[in-house]
Design goal:
Oligomer: single chain
Order of helices and strands: EEEEHEEEHHHHHH
Helix content: 40-55%
Structural class: alpha+beta
Low-confidence stretches: 1-21, 34-41, 44-49, 51-61
Mean pLDDT: 76
Shape: rod-shaped
Strand content: 5-15%
Radius of gyration: 38 Å
Strand order of the largest sheet: 2-3-4-1-5-7-6
Number of helices: 7
């Protein structure tokens, strides 16, 4: 179920000419790992702010609706809110325990788009980052929100991928120049774990490749979602991201082989030194026995000589 909140503004008695209406937004904010909702699927939020009673000929409250959609994989999409209102809503939701605190605000991935309403267009369209809707149907906005939320989440993964590339970019050159790599096993395992986590988020967990359930029940909206998906190049971007993950994965595999060989080389030398020490100990033991037996034989021979001298003197 969707919670609804509408915002309406007072209007004068002037007649409104027929022309497309430009709106700022939607604003898409990714919070990293949050928000995490107890309920599955996006949550749509509308708010109607009370206005003082005023005599007017015609109500245009439906033309000034601010909407927000929250997705379980950590993206919020806002239509028609100011930046301050967006932060207030997110702070209130976090204070109410609607989601867990994710990344710091400085680390948020924020994207801004524009949209207009034009009753003269035959169907919703996209041109030059401008979304044009024929009507104010919230389902159109929800279809748009699904696509751009997936694109925003993909942008987060692309940023993480860039950080991973920056961490590993010096390794091939270091191996080529020096033939050695100053990287221990723990750091290599951390990088491998981070890589596999990113791959799982992109392909299994993040929701980027999944078709939202909305379009199973509202099949007529799927062409709009697919058009926005193609416009934002989500499919090709996922393919490029997976290709980069494969390249970094191959590099980390080589690094692990190098670390294993280095460890085996170290173990081999340890074994050699242990064998050498054992040989030295054995040689020392043999020499000690020979010396001991030599001293003992000399002492026995001296004793025999003394006894012989005494026997001769006794005679």
């Amino acid at each position: 179920m969707e919670d609804t909140l509408e915002r309406s503004e007072d209007h004068t008695n002037e007649e409104h000419p027929h022309h497309p209406e430009d709106h700022d937004g939607p604003i898409i904010v990714d919070h990293g790992d949050g928000p995490h909702f107890d309920r599955e699927g996006p949550q749509l939020l509308r708010k109607r702010y009370p206005s003082p009673p005023r005599r007017r000929r015609k109500s245009y409250s439906s033309q000034n609706v601010a909407e927000a959609v929250f997705f379980s994989y950590g993206v919020s999409v806002f239509f028609g809110f100011t930046a301050g209102e967006e932060r207030t809503i997110m702070s209130d939701c976090e204070a109410a325990g609607a989601w867990q605190h994710g990344q710091a605000e400085d680390d948020w991935e924020v994207e801004e788009f524009h949209y207009v309403y034009d009753r003269d267009v035959e169907s919703p369209r996209i041109y030059n980052d401008m979304f044009t809707f024929k009507s104010r149907s919230h389902l159109f906005k929800l279809s748009l929100a699904h696509a751009i939320a997936q694109s925003t989440k993909l942008s987060v993964y692309e940023s993480v991928m860039q950080e991973s590339l920056a961490l590993t970019s010096s390794f091939p050159k270091e191996l080529a120049v020096t033939g050695h790599l100053q990287l221990n096993r723990i750091d290599a395992l951390k990088m491998t774990g981070r890589l596999f986590r990113l791959r799982m988020d992109v392909n299994l967990i993040g929701g980027i490749l999944d078709t939202p359930e909305l379009f199973w029940s509202e099949a007529s909206l799927y062409p709009l979602y697919e058009a926005i998906n193609q416009y934002l190049e989500i499919g090709p971007r996922v393919q490029v991201l997976n290709d980069r993950l494969s390249v970094v994965g191959d590099l980390l595999e080589i690094i692990h082989e190098y670390i294993d060989q280095r460890a085996m080389h170290r173990i081999t030398w340890i074994i050699i030194w242990l064998i050498l020490i054992a040989c030295i100990v054995q040689v020392g033991e043999v020499i000690a026995r020979l010396v001991f037996h030599g001293i003992e034989a000399s002492a026995v021979q001296s004793l025999f000589v003394v006894r012989g001298v005494r026997a001769a003197l006794g005679k």
